[in-house]
Amino acid sequence: QVQLVESGGGLVQAGGSLKLSCAASGRTFNTAMGWFRQAPGKEREFVASISWAGGVRNYADSVKGRFTISRDNAKNTMFLQMNSLQPEDTAVYYCAMGGIGTALREYAYWGQGTQVTVSS
After folding, report:
1. Measured CA distances, 80 to 6, 19, 31 (Å)
2. Distance between CA atoms of 55 and 37, rounded to whole angstroms?
3. CB 109 within 8 A of CB 2
4. Phi-psi map region of 97: left, alpha, beta (phi>0 left; psi -120 to 50 alpha)
5. Integer angstrom CA distances of residue 68 from 18, 42, 49, 84
6. How confident is the model over 4-23, as pLDDT tens digits?
7. How does pLDDT run across 56-82, given as a tens digit for each residue?
8. β-pairing verdict for 18-25 and 3-7
9. How far apart are CA 49 and CA 67, in angstroms?
């Protein structure tokens, strides 16, 4: 069974930065992974994804140039560096394993989420 545990969320002022981590355990860490987010009253949406070797990285238009996805396979951990945060980035952020695209159905495993709140 795969377990994904997010950390690094919190409260930050607009313009600030946060770095999220997602630690994976329970199986070989040899698949693509991604980050999604869900704001109150909205559907869960794609944020970024990264291939196993890190050579392919995809971003939602809303975060391009501000967020950077990366991974350390030796430590079974994925990261999301978030800079220039804005109030509209406020959401619960989820890591997911098994896909590289933007559709939720591509991802077989999900973490419990970490709250990111950006104050204006």
Report:
1. 10, 6, 17
2. 23
3. yes
4. beta
5. 11, 23, 10, 12
6. 999 999 999 999 999 999 99
7. 999 999 999 999 999 999 999 999 999
8. antiparallel
9. 11
